[in-house]
Amino acid sequence: MAKYNILMHEMVPEHWLVSVKEEEKVLKTLGVTKGQLPKIRKSDPVIKALEKVEGEIIPGRMIEIVRKSRTRGIAKLYRTVIGE
Amino acid sequence: MKVEISKGIEELKFALLSPDEIRRMSAVKVITPDTYDDDGYPIEKGLMDPSMGVIEPGLKCKTCGGKVDQCPGHFGHIELAMPVVHIGFIKEIYSILSSTCSNCGRIKLADDKLKGYFQKIKDTADRLSDIEYDDIVSEVESEASDVVICPHCHFENQKVALDKPTTFREEGKKLTPKEIRERFEKIPNEDLPLIGLDPKVARPEWMVLTVFPVPPVNVRPTITLETGERSEDDLTHKLVDVIRINQRLRENRDQGSPQLIIEDLWDLLQYHITTYFDNQTPGTPPARHRSGRSLKTLVQRLKGKEGRFRSNLSGKRVNFSARTVISPEPFLSINQVGVPEKAARELTVTETVTEHNFEKLKELIKNGPGKEEDVYKPGVNYVYRTDGSRIKISDKNAAEVAEKMEMGWQVERQMENGDIVLFNRQPSLHRMSMMAHEVRVLPYRTFRFNLAVCAPYNADFDGDEMNLHVLQSQEARAEAEILMKVQENFLSPRFGGPIMGAIHDHITALFMLTYKNPLIPLDAGLHIMSYIDVDKTPETVEVDGKKYFRGRDIFSMILPEGVNLEFKGKLGDKSLDPNGTEGTIKIENGKLINGAIDENAIGQSKGVLLDYVLRKYGNAEGAKFLDNLTRLAAGVISFTGFSTGIDDEDVPGEAKAQLREVGNEAVQKVEKLIENYKNGLIGMEPGKTLEDTLESMVMKALSQAREKSSEIASHYLGMDNSTVIMARSGARANMMNLAQMAGIIGQQSIRGQRQHRGYTNRTLPHFQKGDIGAYARGFVSSSYKEGLNPTEYFFHATGGREGLVDIAVRTSRSGYMQRRLINALEDLKVSDEGKVLDTEDSIIQLEYGEDGTDPSRSFEGESVDVDYLIKEMFGKKYGGKQ
Description:
The structure holds 2 protein chains of 2 kinds.
Chain A: E1 14-18, H1 20-30, E2 39-41, H2 45-54, E3 62-69, E4 73-82
Parallel strand pairs in A: 2-4
Antiparallel strand pairs in A: 1-3, 3-4
Chain B: H1 19-25, E1 76-85, H2 90-99, H3 111-123, H4 130-144, E2 160-163, E3 167-170, E4 173-175, H5 177-185, E5 208-214, E6 223-224, E7 230-231, H6 234-255, H7 259-277, H8 298-302, H9 308-313, E8 321-328, E9 336-340, H10 341-346, E10 348-352, H11 358-367, E11 380-384, E12 390-392, H12 398-404, E13 410-414, E14 420-424, E15 434-442, E16 447-449, H13 454-457, E17 465-470, H14 474-484, H15 504-514, E18 519-521, H16 522-529, E19 541-543, E20 546-550, H17 551-556, E21 565-568, E22 584-588, E23 591-594, H18 599-602, H19 608-617, H20 619-640, H21 653-678, H22 690-716, H23 722-729, H24 735-742, E24 746-747, E25 749-750, E26 753-754, E27 779-780, H25 790-825, E28 829-830, E29 836-837, E30 843-845, H26 866-874
Parallel strand pairs in B: 8-16, 9-15
Antiparallel strand pairs in B: 1-5, 2-3, 3-4, 6-7, 8-17, 10-13, 11-12, 11-13, 14-15, 14-17, 18-20, 19-20, 21-22, 22-23, 24-27, 25-26, 28-29, 29-30
Helix pairs in contact in B: 2-4, 6-7, 11-12, 15-20, 16-20, 19-20, 21-22, 22-24
């Protein structure tokens, strides 16, 4: 079976790698530190799929998740990549 | 932001009690299994020895000299004739037995391996978590227990098996606790860290008891009944058993009795000590009281919902609270609660005397505690002087104490009208289960409140009881009034609409008042309006020389000024009114112009008018509207009267014939369908088998019959019928219930299917085998009024039971689900910036609910009701829906 790109599945929200330059800006607007953000594992299938596009994603990078929200229409959430 | 905690627990360490330590902390060596002598004095060296603490007031402790409230109690001890294993350490004993050598006592691993593990612990010592340490210990255990030849002394070890609950066997031979102890003594201190023990505080042989601690009497107090009879605590009973068997064992051992007898007694001692710790040990019959009740021993005191933790530490009984039966009172505001005088005299608010309340409190003290037969007048039960001493106020000393009252005294004054209290009904499933009310002290013995408040508490008056808590500080009162008052909880955070509203008779009454705008005779109208505050009566109309009010004009009296609203009522387009206008409710400038007020206007969780008043005029005005509404409704319905009976469902003979026809037709139709099925004339529907297709066709035919009967019933039962009024207005019941009473009850189903289980190929022996016709599968063509025939009755009962089982299963399951959900979410908080954070300040949501909207301040979940704004700003012709 051909490998399916899970990022294309309709149930998987959009995942974007936040550039190192932009990270600080995002954190500043949110008023939080990186450690406070929810985590996502490097071994997460979504990160693996993203790595095919962006190259290796080292722990500590930030991921932007854009998803549909029943209450807000479109909601953005950020996660920090952790090891394993 | 980190919150500073003044005292924090840094570390907890568990250790074992050594036999020496048990002896050292013991105040007395207990040797007799008796408690008190015939004169009621505790026996020396018995289980109630006064050295172990005092429980009777007036006596002094023999050990510390303290009185009841000063002496903490002291342990005693029992010297066991033979050692016995501790049931709480069975697992540990088993693992130590299997991982150490029975000859030399070392862990059965080569020295270099042991060194490696020690190094691992040492390397990570500074950052080693308990979990990692536990991992190492269990790794050592699993590796060592497989070794047969000891690498240290080359002894060939045998496999140890645990024969639950407390027996260990080596190759089938029993290992006595004494042998276990001897083996454990051989284990060197140096090896202990790899077993998980700290040699400074624990030795493995201490897991086998040789000395048994006897808890202080404070832990197991004697209860003296009113008859003067004494009753000992379960723990004392158990200790009696232990001492008795221990004594017999010692005697038999010293006499040199046969080994068999000694072993039996030893096992018995083991049993008693095991059940002393845990009376629900698997594989052990629980020790019982003479009456057959199983004893509550140490583990049972701590464990489970009724145990020390969940019952006494996580939750406690509180003061300043009351509980009694509830009953309705439509003349109270929704913000009030009626408190019985009897409770009001007991419940108090503690006030400090200041210059602001000096005179008031002085008067209150003068009133004394009051007598039950007198008219209620708030008084004072106790006062506390500045030095903390308490004075009980009686009729005698009231005047005297009032004169002596000084600034800074604390006065426990009785409840008065206007006090703020919390009112609660269990199960407290949502935040509206506990709301703040204003007190009204009333005669009789029940708590009373407005019927609109039944909904948030999910209360009815078939014997429900509720709890009331009196707030004790100004801060608490202010907070409760702003956040918890009934009127502040109108809009439910569940769906963003009003959860409270008119129910049952309120809806019936106001429906009758407004349906077709009836003429109300002058005197009747005035009587009805006397229930509400009236500035000016509406204008009268004259018919045939008599003066009348119009019903809608009377209703308009309770509407706030400037209400402009048009919406569809329950009657809607299906109105029984020939012109079909009653279903459109139109209010212009605070006057009801058209339409009948029904559930859609004022009902709980769907009342459009109520919702509108709340949003436009605020909670206080909303509360006033609802208060007036309940009073007006009470006025209307108590004046006109309203009742219903089974003869409401009488239909004329021709209707009965029609209904019978409908029933027969349906049954025949089903027979036809079955015949076609047997002849293979039915085609399969997509995704269904032939049988399923037939079933669905039959179900459809039968439900059509019920609908048709409903139509016939509604046709013959008009708006002059009480039941129809209730159903149409949405007060209670619906047209289907009515049709079931008058016409056809219809198909009884189980899990959405026609009934088919029972005997071989038939549901009941009353039918032919293989009969799948309407009646054989649970169709009921009778009405409730006519009555059901026996088979119909049976099917009806089976269908009814499904509902009951469903409810029972659902409540227990959803209750447990909710408990887990609450435990998972209980300490999340919304920060000042609107973020949802946990206790570590980690982000759960960047903005509460992703849109930052409080659902209880929302419009049905939306942040803004755009339609409403447009209508308010640009006039109604631009308004969207409604």
